[in-house]
Every structure is written in C-alpha cells, then in structure tokens.
Known about the structure:
By secondary structure, the chain is mostly helical. The protein contains 20 helices and no strands.
Amino acid sequence: MKNKEYNIVKNLIFSSISTLSTFFLFILLSFLGRVLGSEQYGIFTTALSIATIFEMFTDFGLRDISIRNVSRSKDLTENYLGNILVWKTLLCTAIYGAMLITVHILGYKGEIRTIIYILTISAFLKNMIYTFRIFFQAHDEFGWDTLLVLIERTSLLGFGLAALFRWEALMPFTICFASVRAVNFLLTLITIRWKISPIRLKFNLKLMKKLQFEAFPLGLFFVILTVFSYIDTVMLSLMRDYHEVGLYNAAFKIYEGVAILPTVFWLVFLPRLSELYNVDLGYHRRMSIKSVKYLFIVGLPAVTYGVLFSEMLINFFFKAEFTAAIFTLQILFFGLLFQYPNWMLNATLISMNRQRVIMVFGAIGLGFKIIVNLIVIPIYGFNGSAVATVMSEFLLFLAATIYLYRYHVKMPIVKIILKPVLAASLIYAGFEWLDFIPVIPLIALTGILYIIAILLLKSFDRDEINTFMTNLKMMFGKPRAAEQKVDS
C-alpha cells in the first residue's frame, strides 16, 4: 500500500502539470479572439464545438474502461493496444462520414464548413492520443504522459501563434492546429512502443464487442457530457449569430480552463478507486468521500476569485469588444461549485461499475439543458445559456449524490461543504475590507487566510495530514518514511 500512496502524490503532481498546460490552449484561443475579433472567434469556436461533439463518438467509453481494466491487470496491455488502434481507426472513418452529412443538413456553408472538416480530423487525432495516454497512466508512467502533453501543447501554442500573426486568417491557423496533432499522435505511438509495449495491429471482434458493450453506457455518458458542454455554442450559432457565439465562448473558455482542474484528481483517483472497489470497500468509501471533499476545498476559492475577477479576466485575455461577456463569466463561475465535485462523484460511480447510472443522469441533464436553452436563448441570448449551464450542473450533482447515498457511499455533503464555505467567506471579506491593498498582494493574503482557515477548522484529519507529510518525505528520498504504512 505504501507504493500506491506514494504514487498518488507523485502522480497528482505530474497530472497537475499536464492539466495546467491546457492554459497554453486557452492563451492561443484568446489571441485568436484579440487578433481576429468576436465574429471570427465565434466561427472558429462553433467549428471546434461541432468537431469535439463528433470526436466523442469515436471512443464510446473505451478510454476509461481500458484504464480501469489495464490498471487491474497489466497483462492486457499489448492486446488492448493493437485492437483499440484498429477499432478506433474504423470508428473515426465511419463517424467522419456522419459528420459530413450532419454539417450539410445543418446548413453550414463556406469557410466554416471547411474549418469544421479540418478540426474534426484534428479532434479525432486528439482522441486517439488521449486514448493511448491511458496506458502510461495505468502503468504508473505519468512522467512520460506529462512530457508528451507538454510537447503537444507548447507546439500548438508556438506554431499556432506564428500562423496567426503571419497570416491573420482562420484557415492557416486551423491547418496548423491539425498538423501539430498529427505529429504528436505519431510521437505518442513511438513512445508507447519504447516504454510500455510493442504495438501489433490486431482485430479480435469478440474482444472489441465485449469491451464496447461494457463501455457503451460510459461512452454514451461522455458523448452526452461533451454535447452538454458544447450544445450552447451550437444552439447559439443556429438561433442567434456568430458575434454572440464569440462573446459566450470568451466567457466559456475561461470557465472551461478553470473547470479542467478536477481532471487532475480524476486521472489519479480513478485507477486507485477501481482497484480498491475489488479489494477494500471500506477504504474505497473513505477515499471517495475524501476526493469529493478535496474538490470542494479547491472549488470554493475558484468560485470566489472567479466572480471577483471576471471583469479583469475578460479585459486581460480579450479586448473591449468582449466586455459584454463579463456578466456571463460571473454566472458560469457559480457552476464550478457543482462541476468540481461532479468529476469525483462520477469517478466513484465508474469504479463501482455503475456506467449505466451516470449515462441516465447525463441524458437527463442534457435534456434539461436543451429545454432551458430553448426557453432562455430567445429572451436572454448568451447569458441565458450560462444560466442553463449552472442549473444543469446542479441537477447532475444532486442526482449523483442521492444515488451514492442510497448505495454504498453516503456523502456527508453539508459537513463537507460547510468549512470551505466559511473559509471562502474570508476571501470575499478581504476584498471588501482591504481594498486599499494592491491586487496581487491581496490575492496572496486572502489565499493564505483561506488555507489557515481550512487548517484551523480541521478540514483535514490527522491521518490525512500524516499521510501528506509522509509522502512528501518519500518523494524527497527519506527512506524511513517510505517504510511507513498509511491509510488515506
């Protein structure tokens, strides 16, 4: 168990680096908005949203089922690698044809149609890369995973900015986007072959039918989740105009960037929870509750700072043309309060083999969001879409919490959230009462106050603190600490 605990801390660090590198993509898209304006930004983000929705149909849960199964049995690696590569290639070909038909039916024409075609290829390559990254994670090789992610995203940022400033047009920028992804896909396969396992093309139809059947509920959930994230953009493009799409996505991309943080916990805790469910239900229950608690502790200051700094964020990353998105961003930030814990609630359900449950919840949430959007977009435009997002995240949070409370994991939500709320109130009070202090020192001061309050309120028990300190010593090479056995 000691090695597992060490890996959780170490892998959280590597996973954090990978996740934070997503900020490079946000910088790239913010420059796109600044250079080309809200309408061109709206065209690109509409195309990207459509491509991302179709991307999810090329996986259908294989990625997460594979990481669960390979984490439990490393001997499956080579067989999974060869079969999944062939199967996903076939899926991508079929789904690309479906995308061509759908884009024609929806009536997208001209430049945006071509951009959708190119970005869909880019999205398919990204999906392939992400699928094969799970083999690094399942084999506890988070360092190589992180390195490949950094190479991809720094390349996207560097070459993307070069194309943007050289031509100041969407098409060269889009082609650059897809080209970087193609190179990174090849690099990922080479690294897997070198560090993990040989890649031999195989096609065991019986195995893939079994895997796909097992993964289908989870895959459908992730399709639903992706449509859930991007349906606002598509509906706005069809019901309003690209200017409003651009304004909404200026806010949504900032929200999405901050909302990516829980994936750090997802990537690290999902394999661990999957193992524990088979061997130690009590430990599985405790770790599930703690993971949700950690995300509330991280999420409350994210909501508070986000609402306080929405105006500064929009003005910094975009330009005066986008100031109408400030209120939209403030609305979206309230969704983080539910979106953060939703990640670990879903991870817990997946580790318990409850893929069908989260599929049903996701479908209900998506249907609810579409109905709300149909009502509010004609009246409130892109601000209405932000409200629909927050309401839908709350519905998903409520459904998962109630289900887990009835089956195996009784989440003490009030107890979990109360202390972070009290601590986060100090951040808001600090900005109200100490506004004479410059912004950067005030952020640091209120952040320190939040951490002190969290500790004084005993949000972490003694075992959690001891485990954290032990793992830090282990990472810095303290041999005696490495011998200790910890239980959290």
